[in-house]
Amino acid sequence: MGNNVVKRYNVAISMDFNEGDYGGVFTNGLRQNNIFLYRMFRASKNCANVWLLNVGSREYRFPSGVLGLADDAIVRFDQIKDHLDYLVVVGTRPGEDQIRHLRDRGCKIIFYKGGNSAILSMEGMADPDPDKYGEFYFDASYYDAIWMTPQHIRSYAKWAKTMYRQEVHEVPQVWDASFLELQDSTTRGAFGYKKKKRGEKWKVGVTDPNITVMKTAHMPALVCEAAFRKRPALFEKIYITNALQYMQNAHFVSFMDALSAIRAGVMSVEQRFMLYDLLARHVHAIVTHHWENGLNYLYYEVLYGNYPLIHNSQFLSDYGYYYEDFDAEDGARALLRAIKEHDRSLDQYAARNAPLFAQLDPRSPDIIRLHETLMFAS
């Protein structure tokens, strides 16, 4: 790289697809992450080619022009196996023989850890379901580097360093609002917080997925319950989404039945909603909670629409309405503050959010430079 000349490179990002909308990109944050990484590499003047390497069993092609993807963005291994300089493995891996082929010809392989597999593995061992996901380590010697997003560093970086025998490098999350373009025209047209009419009550959504202890509805429901007890007249509806399937679970039924907002008919248990659609059509605010997962796309989507985000992420404590970990009463304070202040401070709220999206933008020169510096050092 003498004289600041960088050889143009070819890079692929591993991915699979399922039968959901747009190949399942809305069912898994890692699939969205792949698209943002693709957009980042495609924006780099140093990148000759970037591909999404389909390592799954299902074929898929995005509609032409969607998300800034080239028509030939999705490829199979044999199409690019002798052209790759770097492979970024995200969530799903090529086969052992394919990895060996790439390594033999000098391709560098980077493991991008967008999820917290330490906690997922602990859950996999504790859960009586033998098919519960936990990390598998047949690939412990495959990689030349590990990249990890900031929210997992504290609890997973040293675990991964020991297991994979590689240094773990922190990389920022990348995100933009491009997935909004995949929503229907009604959702796109209605998306964005609107000041409420005089006397209009609040509708609040809880959207935590309830598939891992990192993100369940327990604390958000308690935050809403504590706020409802203090000011019940403020609330029209509180929707606990992604939870209808748990109404056969004795613990969950007991938990919900203990809440006064449920008994008053204000809080209800609902099916899964697409977040953009939920925000555009059904709620004014989102209450959420995490444990060891303090950055996720939900936060950015809510903030991008300038909706009140009531959350406990220290990474984003300067944005939205922050409350302390596992403190429902402090969460209620944050929610009631949002109800009181949000309409009159909407312009300031939007202005405060704008720099965040510039920092996250996959086309940001700083974002590109950071990733390429780590990649070239692999």
From TrEMBL:
It comes from the Bacteria. This is DUF2827 domain-containing protein. It comes from Caenibius tardaugens NBRC 16725.
